[in-house]
Amino acid sequence: MFIYFIFIYTEYRHTFPIPGFYWAISFTKRTRAMQMILLISSVGAFMLAWSFWEWQRQLLFISSVCGEHSGGRNGFIVRASGCISSPTSILLETKEGTHTLSKVFHKIAGREPRYTTTAMNKNFGLTEAEFNKLLLALNNGDESLYEQVFLTHFEDCCKYLMNTYRASPEDAYDASMSTMLEFCNRLKTGRVTYGNLRFLFTRMAGQVYLKWIKKQQKTTGIEHMDIQEAPEDIDDESYAILNKAWDSLLKDCQTLLEEFYYTGATLEHIATVLNKSAVAVRKQKQRCVDKLRELFIGFSLPEES
Q1: Cystine design at 93: which of 25, 58, 225, 299 (Cβ 3.0–4.6 Å)?
Q2: Which one of 181, 199, 234 terminates a domain?
Q3: Which domain holds residue 217?
Q4: Percent of the chain at pLDDT above 70?
Q5: Has residue 47 got a pLDDT over 50?
Q6: What does pTM read for this prediction?
């Protein structure tokens, strides 16, 4: 109402300089002035409501992103937990700010689970704590660890022997079972530690199978097979160095080498999946092998004092 009187006085102050001027204005002019004031008031109220809604929306967004990390469900708890350092962080209301905030939290929240998942994949689906618990139980007569190894890796190991060494299903099964017994014996004697147990088991299975081939020579063409013999044994130190070199390899190289050497996928199949030519994948595989060899040699060298 105050704005209304200011508007009327500003428009008609020269015609009606006295305080009672308003009542002398014609009805038409008063109606037009009222409509103008209502329009201005409506626009202002809408802008105010929009600003308040935007503020609430951003506050709810920040709460949803940070609340589970801070233990809170509203903006005040989020701020108190340190997710937002001060009220000035309301600058994050911009689209760019909220996008950056979301990426940071997803990265932080996903880092440990990704590491844990990778480690579990290398170790029969077990975390280090679970492995140590089952290992302790194994020494007390509980064979749950045997069952875990058998259920999660035995079939994959058989496939590896068939794909890599062209072993028959029967020979692959026998070699994997013999490896199972030797692996469990190493577990009991403390010669196996958490790290990359799947690789160690598969490596041992390859060694067992190659020893059988040398002794038995069951089929006529077996001695002419183009296979690369594995070392007779792999000591703990070399295994640790290889595991360290593998972890230092780029993820793309790890995936490529696992697909080719472990699952037995052909370069043509890998090229199709990656949408690349077979020639390009073959060159990439060789670069990855060379890099792994370089890393292994580098980690094998004694550190200069």
Answers
A1: 58
A2: 234
A3: 126-234
A4: 58
A5: yes
A6: 0.43
In a domain, 14, yes or no: yes
Q: Are residues 65 and 152 in the same domain?
A: no
Structural domain contains residue 221: yes
Query: How is the chain classified by DSSP, letter by letter?
Result: -HHHHHHHHHHHTTT--SGGGGGGS-HHHHHHHHHHHHHHHHHHHHHHHHHHHHHHHHHHHHHHHHHHHHT-SSHHHHHHHTSS-SGGGGGGGSHHHHHHHHHHHHHHHHHHHHHHHHHHHHTTT--HHHHHHHHHHHHTT--HHHHHHHHHHHHHHHHHHHHHH---HHHHHHHHHHHHHHHHHHHHTT---SS-HHHHHHHHHHHHHHHHHHHH--STTGGG----PPPS---HHHHHHHHHHHHHS-HHHHHHHIIIIIS---HHHHHHHHT--HHHHHHHHHHHHHHHHHHHHHHHSPPP-
Please tell me the total count of domains within the chain.
Answer: 3
Q: Quick: pLDDT tens for 256-271.
A: 888 887 777 788 888 8
pLDDT in tens, 97-127: 334 434 433 333 333 334 445 667 788 888 8
Q: What percent of the chain lies above the pLDDT cut of 90?
A: 1
The answer to whether 185 touches 219, Cβ cutoff 8 Å, is no
Q: pLDDT by residue (tens digit) across 147-183?
A: 888 788 888 889 889 888 888 888 899 999 999 889 8
Question: Both 167 and 194 in a single domain?
Answer: yes
Whether residue 146 is predicted with pLDDT greater than 80 in this model: the reply is no
The CATH number that applies at residue 259 is 1.10.10
Q: What is the Cα–Cα distance from 135 to 280, expressed in whole angstroms? A: 44
In a domain, 119, yes or no: no
Based on the fold, state whether residues 105 and 51 are members of the same structural domain: yes
What does the pLDDT read at residue 188?
Answer: 85
The verdict on residue 178 lying in a domain is: yes
Q: Which of 234, 259, 282 is the last residue of a domain?
A: 234
